Amino acid sequence: MDRRKIEEGLFKALMIASTLIILSSLVLILTTVIVKGVPAMNLAMITQTPKGGFYLGKEGGILNAIVGSLYLATGATFLAILISLPVVLYLNVYAKKSSRIITFTRFSLDVLWGVPSIVYGAFGFTIMLFFGLRGSLLGGIIAVALLVLPIMTRAMDEVIRMVPKELLEASYSLGATRLETALKVVVRQALPGILTAVLIAFGRGIGDAASVIFTAGFSDFIPYSLLRPAATLPLAIFFQLGTPFPEVQDRAYASALILTVIILIISIASRILTRRFTRHVVK
Amino acid sequence: MDKRLLKDVLAERFMLLLTIFAGLIVFVMAIGLYQRSRPILAIKSLSELLFSTSWHPLRKEFGFLPFIMGSLWVTGVAVIIAIPLCLLTAIFLSEYAPRYVREWTKPLIDLLAGIPSVVYGVWGVLVIIPLIKDYIAPFFGTFSSGYSVLAGGIVLAIMVFPIIIHVSLEVFRTVPYEIREASLSLGATKWQTIKHVVIRKAMPGIIAAIVLGVSRAFGETMAVLMVAGNVAKVPSSVLEPAYPLPALIANNYGEMLSVPLYDSALLLACLILLLVVLFFNVIARVVLIRVERSIK
Amino acid sequence: MGMGFKTHISVQNLNVFYRKQQALKNITIDIPDKKIIAIIGPSGCGKTTLLKSFNRLIDSVDGIRVSGKVLVDGENIFDPKIDVTRIRKKMGLLAQSPTPLPMSIYDNVAYGPRIHGLKDKKELDRIVEHYLKESSLWDEVKDRLHTPASRISVGQQQRLCLARGLAVEPEIILADEPTSALDPKSSQRIERSFLRLKNEYTTIIVTHILRQAKRLADYVVFLYCGELIEHGPATNVFENPKEEMTREYIKGVIS
């Protein structure tokens, strides 16, 4: 009898310990980012591009990476929405319930969700070679769009699936076409969830390095066209971390801080949206 | 009336096209990578590429074994660290923790999943590398630069915590409370119930969760690139550096086009990576679908 | 107690609150020893809550609050110092739908004795065979004891659950709508088992099938909306109910 209690007590202690270990690793990482990043932050950091080359130039800031990342992530997210939304609407409104296309596409996208980002980068690279493109904003946008597509689609699919069938039927019985129902009823009902999916995808896209390392190039400047190379925050961290100059290293830390803050904001925003969504769902 | 119907039908065609496109992406990628790998497959056999340890691109020698082994070592260490921690945490959150603890902890763990891989890399360089170099290696009486399998493994373990825990929690949820009750009413303690009944029922799903974690670890690029050392040699201990496959691909994007066959070799490496990850993912997903179905 | 029977379970002022709702209101009743007691009443009226409070299975429900005492053989099972697993060992629960554990038929029956420390294989073999016979399942499964329990039919699974529950040698059998998921033939078998086991165990059955209660019960307890309306020997309650509500329920007016 006592043996059972001892064993249970031991495992309970181990369980609490491991939960604490996992949570403290989160705290450790965030603390390091803040401790190294905050001292490196100043107005020049976020308003200027690097002067004298991103690797060696000690002056200037990371505006190139901030703007480059924002352009790239926004473009990629937008491109992904153009594909995700119609696909998800098709799967949930148009296609027959047990159609093979539904199961195949969902499974295929689920599997795609786990593909490493470097594969998207390499594949994007092969496409770019095929079209004679060089490392550019456009290349990065395509690669990242492919990367976030399964993530966005899955998140959207989950929310649109929750739209009750009765709502659709009500729309049909009023004489609406499927298209009208999809756009005016389903999208409106699921809008917070759709926005959350977009946010999640944006967050994933902006933080990824492996997909852009081949495709977006890097630059000290802000890209003025889609065909120019673009600096990105993740690559700014990667390239500038290994420099011998502490001022340049500071740029890496500042980039890490900004990137992490962006991700945190997106996480919180998407959680708030999800909570509001589930409260107002028509049952 | 006709115009609306016309719009509806056109929209349907358009959406169907996009859906088929989306479903085929994974195949298109595999085929595309294969096409670009053909040059090197034409002059070297697959077994020569996979099992040779000689990596000298300028001499046209492309043996992938050091990188495959590097990936296996790093992933192995990550999984060994992650499995016990994740299972214990998942059991705690699912079976013991009060609801508010669960509701606060789950989002925090998911936050770990959102942190970009380069940030993990930075943290690894700043915290783990010195830890290994100054404390762990001397403790075992050896020297290490810190850039090692162990560093990669530790960082990767933290990166896969969220997915293993998240999927495991979902799987525990599918275990019907009635069999927990049946076990308790026979006089079993909560822990006995978990050990003999809950885990048993959840086993296939837990394995799937682990496989998904392995797959994620295998494909991870930036963080390991920054801490694993990147020396093209099969590691013989966890304190030695390793050069995992994704790191190889990412590190050499610059020289890729200037050395003949280099790009083909690297894209072949990428294809191998893709196929391995797809294999793991498909199996894990199929198992999870079966688990979902069994509760209906 | 003046009713001519020995008391096995004595419920005193039991109140069960589930968050803001009160599931059981001030229940006081003595459950007689070695009889079949049927708890009847409309659905959702606390019958299962009462049953599950006997083996403290309600402990695991989020937000539950209990006041009052339940004395089994004189001990208050809600005393915080008490070892719950010991109390539960005294009771065997048969749930509404069969819940075979994810293991073989043999392991299902042997599960209880094993977790209480029994390791001797011969003894376990004997127990498995004995209790499978007690629940009339032995002949049907004796050649495939090591196949997974999920493979046998629903009726067989319920008998397996009965055997499993008996294998820990309880004093009290708790049955929650035990035949509602079964076909008539399997239901009959379970009912016959209860009648056979009557002399060794105190059996408490929650049922909404009045005819089943009439067939099996020696003693009847009628619960309505968490309140104890009437209780007494079966013949008294069914033929001469004292309360108006009881009369209405038995006539089938309220359900």
SS summary, helix count of chain A: 10
Strand percentage of chain A lies at under 5%
> How big a fraction of the residues of chain B is strand?
under 5%
**Morphology call of chain B:** globular
CATH topology assignment of the largest domain in chain A: MetI-like fold
Distance between the termini of chain A: 50 Å
Elements of chain B, N to C (H/E): HHEEHHHHHHHHH
- Helical residue percent band of chain B: over 70%
E-strand count of chain B:
2
> Spans of chain A with pLDDT under 50 lasting ≥5 residues?
none
Class inferred from helices and paired strands of chain A: mainly alpha
Tell me which CATH architecture of the domain at 70-259 in chain B applies here: Orthogonal Bundle
Instruction: Name the CATH architecture of the largest domain in chain A.
Output: Orthogonal Bundle
| Average pLDDT over all residues of chain B | 89
Enumerate the strands of the largest sheet of chain B in spatial order, edge to edge or round the barrel.
Answer: 1-2
The portion of residues assigned to helices of chain A is over 70%
Describe the protein.
- The complex is a heterotrimer of chains A (about 280), B (about 300) and C (about 260).
- Chain A has about 280 residues and is an all-alpha fold.
- Chain A has helices at about 1-35, 45, 65-95, 100-115, 115-130, 135-160, 165-175, 180-205, 235-240, 245-280.
- Chain B has helices at about 1-45, 45-50, 65-95, 100-115, 115-140, 150-175, 175-185, 190-220, 220-225, 245-250, 260-295; strands at about 55, 60.
- Chain C has about 260 residues and is an alpha/beta fold.
- Chain C has one domain (about 5-250): Rossmann fold, CATH 3.40.50.300.
- Chain C has helices at about 45-55, 85-90, 105-115, 120-135, 140, 155-165, 185-195, 210-215, 235-240, 245-250; strands at about 5-20, 20-30, 35-40, 65-70, 75, 90-95, 170-175, 200-205, 220-225, 225-235.
- In chain C, about 45% of the residues are buried.
- Classes of the chains: A mainly alpha (about 280), B mainly alpha (about 300), C alpha/beta (about 260).
